Model the fold of this input.
Amino acid sequence: MPALCHCARYRVLAACFVVRRDNKRTGRFLAGADTRAFILAAGRNRNVDDLRFARYCRCEHAVRQDSGHARRRHRRTRQYKKHYFSSAERIYKGAYSIGDGGKSLNTGKKIQQFVNVPGTRLNYPETVIFGAHDGKCVTVSAGVHCREYVGIQAVIELARTIDPKDIYGELHLVHAFNYDGLICRCSDVFPSDGKNLNRVFPGSTCGTDAEKLAAFLEETVIRHSDCIVDLHSGGGYEYLTPHVYLHGAAAPEVCAQSQELAMHVGVPYAVRSQAKNGFYSHAGTCGVPAVLIERGCCGLWSEDESSRDIEDVKNILRFLGVLRDGIPSARKNLRIFDRGEYLDAPVSGCWYPAKAVGERIKAGESLGRICDIFGELLHEEFAKHDGVILYQTASLGIEKDCPMVAYAIEER
Ligand SMILES: [Zn+2]
Done:
């Protein structure tokens, strides 16, 4: 008989609990960050047993996992014959129908843990604050890009200072998704596969580490959250003016909610993003409103910048009613741009920007030049639109096809 989640401890289990009898049948109980039971069933007649296991696990939801990736892989390898994987469906909709007392066990508690990503050696640190009162579930995340320290430090401080007694709902604070990269001072990719998490959503359970993490985050963090605030800054070689991204490609009501969140961020500029393959943007695709805040640059951080991130997060939490220590302040003069132009370097060489970040530009003006190492001009970039410089490469050296300069477009 396989072991099962220990009821009293399930919330603090670091990662997932795997019950495996043979290769054809796996019941996986995710506990801790997510508290859902996932069931992979091979064969209809065995589902009953899997459900019975799920009932032992005091998780809030049991989800019959969508194993489309596994199904396709089996087809490709011609091993797919009698294995049957059902599509994703919620087996029990009631929050406490499997086990009970999930929330009551943890009400008013703060839990810190490393969450293991199934099928990988990735572990990311998070603090879960179960508020003393009912309310929304909000995720505040940092370290999607591991050299963007301002948000990471802000989350560390938020996790240390927020008292569960003051929280209405549930607050998930992800300290650094790319924790390995943070520690080994990697560039903004995962050391194990060289991938940028914000380019791989929706990910794949059969993919590389970053892709598995993306698939895991969709099923756990995104689906579990009412709202997401993702903290970023300029990477190691990037000047940046503070701004916020809001959904531009999600459903209209999700875009509207995202804009409401952006109105509570203390930056002068907001840009509607059409991206769909990043953590925050994929949340929008899944119907979860989110914003991405950019503050700080050049792979550095300061207390002042982290404090501003903290104030933005708290202001959003006040707006959502998760924090009730004051009145949220909405920004009246936030300039919202519908589009941005994101330019990569057409050649490698030495980069000489002509403008400063935050500076207004006119169509036709030079944005900068790339020269070879002997000083001969290779390329000059001119603005196609009026706008505002959001970020640009700070280093002298620049590589072909890597980010060079980005500006928000002023519509005429
Ligand atoms: Zn970033």
Notes: Residues 144-145, 148, 232 surround zinc ion (CB under 6 Å).
